[in-house]
Specification:
Largest sheet: 5 strands, mixed
Number of helices: 3
Shape: globular
Structural class: mainly beta
Strand order of the largest sheet: 5-1-29-28-27
Number of strands: 29
Helix content: 10-25%
Distance between the termini: 42 Å
Strand content: 35-45%
Oligomer: single chain
Length: 373
């Protein structure tokens, strides 16, 4: 009886392994374009990458004190022309960048403001200021300085509500500030201190993109939190399981969120009861912000790594389904401390996807993926 049970158990394990191996090859990813950095420094960290609401413009920012804007179609067309349909295009940043806006401080976060028709982008900086820029005038039109000069790590806006979109920012001061961009900067909807009086840094804030009145927060106290926007006094859910700072929280759908920690793992959580559904491991992350982005149509997660590689995980499997390394480019190839610092999925598409990744040396790499028949 025990022998029969053991055989069935082994057969089940073998079937699961075969299924996991099959799932690893559902996508073909390839490097399309490399945008070299114009900086002579090996430290030109790309701290933020964002697609605009049309998914056609890519904005990047970091310690260069510039917000750069690229046309995705131009980057991909450059690849097709230069690579002859199968190669990788290498383009200079100055050539690829359509325009840029200079900022007074280093930036850690970007997000297009909902309801602005793609005209306004918000940023969070190292001086604790949230600034919105009008992209037609290319000038700042709104500033908030509610974090006492402490670094702002994350900025986000509700995706629905049109011009009534609400904004939020997370900072080293241990607070999440929630505000209405239509109101004077000194007015606030609410101030949330997830970690209480201990004041652990708020590293990430994200509103539920499906439109539910929820906002997720990642903190240096090793926890993630989900708040009901109608009652910001206490968290509706506390996510406990990481052993180090929770640097990112992303909604995958209405039922699950993904977190990333400097304990070197990602975790998928149920928002119904706060349980861990699955833990993902493979990338290296012990101290830096390496980015986390989810492609909701394909249920794929992308993140960077401190071994200078890009990792893609499928929500169904604990191990990465695809890994690619950043190659030395130009003058920045001498550093052995480079890492992939940010990633962002284009949300369009079902059977084809686009992932943009940025490195600590300012290099951008554009990947395209196609679902296998």
């Amino acid at each position: 009886m025990n022998t029969l049970h053991s055989q069935k158990h082994q057969e089940t394990d073998k079937k699961q392994e075969e299924e996991e191996e099959e799932a690893r090859y559902e996508w073909d990813f390839s490097l399309s374009t490399v945008v070299s950095s114009s900086s002579s420094s090996a430290c030109d960290v790309v701290g933020a990458i964002e697609f605009d609401p049309t998914d056609n413009i890519v904005a990047t920012a970091g310690i260069s004190r510039k917000i750069r804007f690229y046309g995705l179609s131009s980057l991909l067309r450059t690849s097709a022309v230069t690579g002859g349909g199968g190669g990788v295009a290498l383009v200079d940043q100055a050539t690829a960048c359509e325009y840029y806006i200079c900022t007074p401080a280093k930036l850690s976060s970007l997000r297009w403001r909902s309801g602005s028709g793609g005209r306004v982008i918000g940023s969070g900086d190292y001086d604790g200021v949230v600034t919105e820029y009008d992209l037609e005038k290319r000038t700042p039109v709104f500033e908030r300085d509610e974090h006492g000069g402490r670094r702002v790590w994350s900025v986000d806006y509700t995706r629905h509500g049109g011009s009534a979109a609400v904004g939020a920012s997370g900072s080293d001061d241990g607070t999440m500030q929630v505000w209405d961009p239509r109101c004077p900067p000194e007015e606030s909807i609410g101030v949330v201190r997830p970690a209480g009086i201990c004041g652990s840094a708020v590293c990430c804030v994200e509103f539920d993109p499906s439109g539910r009145p929820a906002v997720a927060v990642g903190c240096a106290d090793r926890r993630g939190y989900v708040y009901d926007m109608r009652k910001l006094v206490d968290p509706a859910l506390t996510l406990e399981g990481h052993t180090k700072t929770v640097s990112y929280v992303r909604f995958l759908d209405g039922n699950t969120v993904v977190t990333s920690g400097t304990d070197g793992c990602l975790k998928l959580w149920s928002v119904e009861d706060g349980r861990v559904i699955r833990t993902y491991e493979g990338h290296v992350n012990t101290r830096n912000f390496v980015g986390l982005s989810v492609w909701r149509n394909g249920a794929l997660f992308g993140c960077g790594s401190e071994n200078n590689r890009v990792f893609v995980y499928d929500r169904r499997w604990r191990k990465p389904v695809w890994v690619d390394g950043f190659e030395p480019v130009g003058m920045n190839s001498g550093s052995d401390k480079r890492f992939v610092s940010n990633v962002c999925w284009r949300q369009s598409g079902v059977d084809q996807c686009t992932l943009v990744a940025g490195g600590s040396d300012g290099v951008l790499q554009v990947y395209v993926g196609k679902r296998k028949p």
